[in-house]
Amino acid sequence: MSTFHRVLVNTMLANVTTGFLFFAVVFWIYLATGDVALTGIISGIYMGLIAISSIFFGTVVDHNRKKSVMAFSSAATLVFYALSALVWVFWLDEDNLSIRNIALWVFVSFIIIGSIVEHMRNIALSTVVTLLVPEAERDKANGLVGAVQGVGFLITSVIAGSAIGFLGMEITLWICLALSVVALVHLLPIHIDEPEIITQESAQEAVQQATEETVPTAASDLSIVSKGIDLKGSMKIILSVPGLLALILFASFNNLIGGVYSALMDPYGLELFSPQIWGLMLGLTSLGFIAGGAIIAKTGLGENPVRTLLLVNVGVAGVGMFFAIREWWWLYVLGIFIFMAITPAAEAAEQTILQRVVPFRQQGRVFGLAMAVEMAANPLSTVIVAILAEAYLIPWMAGPGADTIWGIILGEGTARGMALMFFASGAIMLVVVLLAFMSKSYRKLSQYYATTHQDIAGAVDNSGTH
Q1: Where would I find the Major facilitator superfamily (MFS) profile domain in this sequence (predicted)?
Q2: pTM, full prediction
């Protein structure tokens, strides 16, 4: 556990560094150019590349030692940040920035690549929990991961804007370069004891031997190991676990609904608060993420994390339906705090389920594919929701919609169109969660989780005993 805690601290340092620099760059570009399209394109490229690269990253994690993956990630981030610093010093003209500036795009590209490569270690961290933490304690460990991520989010959201406002882009860049060096140096002495990595050749030999000895379980498990982007192998693993595909699709649907929050939370908040106060409110409500993760780290998720995951989403749906039902600032802030506080339970539940039902040597690919599918849903829905709200719902609620039943339910105010979108998305999520509770996939995955135990060497035992 002491090794796990050191790895967790190192990952938080790396996450804070990359998040800090990326968001600082976005703030800096907008303040320097005033170009909304440019900042939107950069953010979209960043999210899209994370989704695409996660599948490849997962394969890399499965075929290499986790310490090596983390060290490579830190080193690659440092190299690309150093290249961006060279572009800043020798090429970029800070007084001549525009969407057509090649030097700006090269500078931003190096920072985006350096930040995206760092996400490889987040996938590795999920498998390290399986590797280092006893099975009975993994839900609590995942809660601790959530708490640490909350701390990272709080730090990043506070320091990124402040650094650009008070220090400027150049000093911010040097700070992040220094932090990247610290993260790499801190990681190097950490030793992670890990089983031998199965190569393609040794896997084929094991499959042949298992076939000759008529051991089909071992053969089917090892035959999944392959080189490159193993999308087919990832799907084979997911489909072999009853209800797991439904779980990933459910999480993706939640991210699709989550696009409502991504698109409208800031505009709605800015209708209620000044920009300065809204930034402060975001910082305060992010404490809910830390508190929620800490509670899970203390209490765990119960005997059935699948059930816990669905119950948490009932809470999320309730928050979505009621936290903007009136334009009361305290109701909105309370709703966001509750949302932040229960989110770590959902994330920890999904991680805990995958860590038990997916063989250790294939977990990287499954985590990577799940991250890719889930993250791809959010940017798409964010764009759609923003267009629908701006073009239809906001004008409608400001006009004829105010005299309908929705005007009675949502009251009066300048942001009733956004409130209607929040209410509708929460209601849709509630219906989907209730249907999920009644589904065969829920029952099958719950039963499989209860009767399966993860062998750290990578085998899955369905006998119901360790």
Answers
A1: 1-444
A2: 0.72
